[in-house]
Design a protein that fits this description.
Chain A: F-type ATPases have 2 components, CF(1) - the catalytic core - and CF(0) - the membrane proton channel. CF(1) has five subunits: alpha(3), beta(3), gamma(1), delta(1), epsilon(1). CF(0) has three main subunits: a, b and c. The structure holds two protein chains of two kinds. Chain A is α/β, with parallel strands linked by helices. Chain A is built from five helices and six strands. Chain A is 60% helix and 13% strand. By secondary structure, chain B is an all-beta fold. In chain B, strands 1, 2, 3, 4, 5, 6, 7, 8 and 9 form a nine-stranded mixed beta sheet that branches. The chains are: A alpha/beta, B mainly beta. Chains A and B meet through helix 1, strand 6 and helix 5 of A and strand 1, strand 2, strand 4 and strand 7 of B. Strand 6 of chain A pairs parallel with strand 4 of chain B, so a sheet runs across the interface.
Chain lengths: 298, 95
């Protein structure tokens, strides 16, 4: 009988230490979210300047650029998947992987070959377990991406996009990441990165109705040549930042739920332990009473 | 006197922002100096020094940049740089 009580006590203890761990994870995620949001805010002026410049070039010159035109000579497409390095974030990685699988299926249904580029250890493990080949992988930064990492990824994707057919060139680049809507909602999103469609920011130029006539130095083509890779890098960096903020928010929420569940479990086990103790006392009393009765009657 | 509104931004944050009398930057075809009223310009930058003369008469600010681009549009100057070495206060000879 005393064994039952001991089992409950042990369970309560282990659940309590789990709860402490969940709570710590939750607090860590919560404190990092602020930093992730700061990073988004820090990257905004650069992104805005680049976008404005690109749309200025696009509206003022009729130059064409390899990044802007569709390639129809290759059946290969690249997909970049941005997931997390660590678990304990609820369905965060699972849902973005599911979205990627759906996209891959759709693209393969259109008769295309998909080259997968993966960022985040969880997703890399997912594909390695299934023995699927990856064209590129990056790990170890998912909750605090740097511009350097974004540059590395963007360079790999741009190289694939500009490579000739026989060297594994791709005709399109898609990115699957998780958009940070707010602390409660994070949505997996698929965007087509290349070829570029420069639409955002064209209309928003401020108080001027007409865009001024720019002088391009040295020439519109070369300005575009310098701008577009930077534009792609900025977009990828922005996507990584969004994914990082989403990961942390998902982790915070998952850990909060886990803490609540641990509390519930502790409460249930405490009740059971109390019941077991009372049962034991009752049994002991009845044993004593019946023993005394037996002695008295003999 | 008209003045320039200058923003110097890098990928991971704003480097400097404020009003200036003059900006000089290493444009693709040679260094350019920008004063108020400059014609709209969009230029690629070479590695070199970007210098800003603040409007309040302070010392000239100078950064070494590895590349980037610059846009000038109705006295709004935006210098976008890839990487930037720490701002140094150059000897105020540009005045």
């Amino acid at each position: 009988m005393a064994g039952k009580q001991r089992i409950y006590k042990a369970r309560i203890k282990s659940t309590q230490s789990l709860k402490k761990m969940f709570r710590a994870q939750e607090l860590i995620a919560a404190s990092r979210i602020g930093k992730a949001r700061d990073r988004v805010a820090m990257a905004t002026p650069y992104a805005r300047a680049i976008t404005r410049a690109v749309s200025a070039v696009a509206t003022h010159s009729d130059v064409s650029h390899p990044f802007l035109v569709e390639r129809d000579d290759v059946p290969r497409v690249a997909v970049l998947l941005v997931a997390s390095d660590r678990g304990m974030a609820g369905a965060y990685s699972a849902s973005v992987i599911r979205e990627t699988e759906r996209l891959v299926q759709r693209l393969e249904g259109e008769g295309k070959q998909v080259a997968l580029y993966v960022a985040g250890r969880r997703a890399v493990a997912f594909y390695r377990f299934r023995q699927r080949e990856l064209a590129g992988q990056w790990t170890g930064f998912s909750d605090a991406p740097t511009p350097q990492i974004a540059d590395e990824i963007a360079d790999a994707l741009l190289a694939a996009f500009t490579a000739p057919v026989e060297e594994g060139g791709v005709g399109e680049v898609h990115v699957v990441f998780t958009q940070f809507v707010n602390m409660v909602t994070q949505r997996p999103r698929v965007i087509r990165m290349l070829p570029l469609e420069v639409v955002e920011g064209v209309a928003a130029v401020g108080e001027h109705d007409a865009l001024p006539l720019y002088e391009f130095e040295p020439s519109p083509e070369e300005v575009l040549d310098a701008l577009l890779p930077r534009y792609v890098r900025t977009r990828i960096y922005a996507n990584l930042l969004q994914a990082a903020a989403s990961e942390l928010a998902a982790r915070q929420r998952a850990m909060h739920t886990a803490t609540d569940n641990a509390e519930d479990l502790i409460r249930t086990y405490t009740r059971l332990a109390n019941q077991a103790r009372q049962g034991e006392i009752t049994q002991e009393i009845s044993e004593i009473v019946s023993g005394a009765d037996a002695l008295a009657s003999s | 006197m008209a003045q320039l509104e200058v923003d110097v931004v890098a990928a991971d944050g704003k480097v400097w922002s404020g009003s200036a009398r003059q900006v000089s930057a290493p444009a693709a075809d040679g260094d350019v100096g920008i004063l108020a009223g400059h014609t709209p310009l969009l230029s690629v930058l070479r590695p070199g020094a970007v210098r800003v003369v603040p409007v309040d008469g302070g010392a000239t600010l100078s950064w070494h940049v590895d590349g980037g681009f610059m846009s000038v549009d109705s006295d709004q100057v935006t210098v976008v740089v890839d990487s930037v070495a720490k701002a140094t206060t150059a000897a105020a000879t540009g005045h």
